[in-house]
Amino acid sequence: MTTLKNKLEQRISDYDFWATRRRYGAEGHNNANLWVLACMDERLPVDEALGIHVDTPVGGGDAHCFRNAGGIVTDDAIRSAMLTCNFFGTKEIVIVQHTQCGMLSANANDLEKVLREKGIDTDNIALDPTLPELKLNNGSFAKWIGMMDDVDVTCMKTVEAFRNHPLIPKDVIVSGWIWEVETRRLRAPTLDPEKRLRTDVVSSAFGVTNKQPDRWS
Ligand SMILES: [Zn+2]
Asked: What family does this belong to (predicted)?
């Protein structure tokens, strides 16, 4: 029989481990050995979509979670995934993007134009002021923004980028998923028109007529 005393002792020991797990390196991994990459959009509830608890203390702590605009591959997403996969015991990467993403809602060239009209020279930007050697070639800024034509295509390309990246160990399992804001459910990325029906997955749904700068196609 497990007494309450036993349970409390276990809970305290679990908490101590959780609170100091970084001292154990790869042995102090999060509960699910998992790194999640998700769009920053507040309509994408990562815990609900994946059935995990990312950031509650004991009983949660299932994953390291990285969010950016789109949930796309970027140099910092690669940096974070490299650290968690090589040094903190992460064995799986789950990528979640979503329908109606803001990254579908405008053309990147138009966004760059707005910045230029504000007087910003987009060909001479310190992307990271602490790392001035990190540079874009002139003319690459719009591509860097990472706007999408089609969220399912982008999701599949993002999975591929992590699978093939030399900094991500080959035995890490990588999968990508789409959260449907309209139906509040998760599905695999697909190009099947029937499965995409009634959801906004392409930029033309937002009145964007020009193709984005070539990044995902
Ligand atoms: Zn989004």
From this structure: Belongs to the beta-class carbonic anhydrase family.
Tell me, yes or no, whether 23 lies in a domain.
Answer: no
**Using one digit for the tens of pLDDT, what is the confidence trace for 56-79?**
555 678 999 999 999 999 999 999
CA 38 to centroid of ligand 1, rounded, Å: 8
Here the tokens at position 73 are 């591959």
Q: Which domain holds residue 90?
A: 28-105+148-209
Q: How far is the CA of 42 from the centre of ligand 1 (A)?
A: 8
Q: How many separate domains does the chain show?
A: 2
Ligand 1 centroid vs 52 CA: distance in angstroms?
20
Same domain? 121 vs 200: no
Taking alpha carbons only, the member of 139, 197, 162, 6 closest to residue 92 is: 162
CB 172 within 8 A of CB 92: yes
Binding residues for Zn(2+): 39, 41, 98, 101
What is the CA(93)–ligand 1 centre distance, in A? 18
pLDDT tens per residue across span 192-214 = 999 999 999 999 999 999 999 99
Cβ burial 76-98 (10 Å sphere, 16+ → b, else e) = ebbebbeebbeebbbeebbbbbb
Which one, of 124, 117, 101, 109, lies nearest residue 213 by Cα? 109
Residues with CB under 5 A from ligand 1 (ion): 39, 41, 101
Q: The domain spanning residue 63 has which CATH number?
A: 3.40.1050.10
